[in-house]
Write a structure and sequence with these properties.
With 130 residues, the chain is mostly helical. The chain has two domains: 39 residues, no CATH class; 87 residues, no CATH class. It has seven helices and three strands. The protein has a three-stranded parallel β-sheet. The longest helix has 15 residues. It is flat, with a radius of gyration of 18 Å.
Length: 130
């Protein structure tokens, strides 16, 4: 039984089970479309502006975020500044996001943690820090 418990805690196995939850045909079709999205050219966004687009993503949703953002920028015709927040990206995914949105600011989790702590400590908001 120990081997099965070990397997159930492996990220690759969990990702496989998650993708197959919709059925193999839909999983294959979604993956095929995602590969097509990854072959599209990068999207340029404005470096600054009064309106921003902010998105929070993690490892399982990274490709879907690229798909959603590319669709948004294509059909809206705007170039709002883009900020993508790391909610648990896998190694290499921040770079992938940077390739598809070269002007976007990818806010890594450790950088955000450091900035929030720097704001909370001087204000004495210790319970928020917890």
């Amino acid at each position: 039984m120990r081997g099965i418990d070990w397997l159930r805690n492996q990220p690759l196995y969990l990702d496989f089970r998650w993708s197959m939850s919709e059925g193999p045909w839909r999983a294959w079709r979604r993956r095929r479309i995602q590969r097509q999205i990854l072959s599209t050219p990068p999207v340029r966004t404005a470096p600054a502006g009064s309106v921003e687009v902010r998105a929070l993503t993690w490892r399982r949703d990274c490709l879907d975020l690229i798909w959603a953002l590319k669709s948004f920028y294509l059909f809206s015709g705007v170039a709002y500044p883009l900020y993508i927040h790391d909610g648990g990206l896998a190694p290499g995914q921040a770079e992938l996001l940077g390739e598809h949105f070269p002007d976007a600011k990818v806010v890594l989790a450790e950088d955000a943690e450091r900035e929030v702590r720097a704001e909370l400590i001087p204000r004495g908001l210790n319970r928020c820090l917890e």
